[in-house]
Amino acid sequence: MSRQVLHAIADSKPEAYVRPMEVWRKRHALKLVDKSTIADSVEWVRVHWDSAYKLYRDSAEFRIAIDALDTGQFIPNTGLSIVSMWGALEALFSPSTSELRFRVSALIAAYMEIPGASRHERQRTILKMYDKRSAAAHGKPTHNSDDLVQVLTLLREVVIKMIHEGRVPSKGELEVKLFGT
Question: Which of 19, 136, 169, 179 could be joined to 173 by an S-S link, Cβ 3.0–4.6 Å?
Answer without folding.
Answer: 169
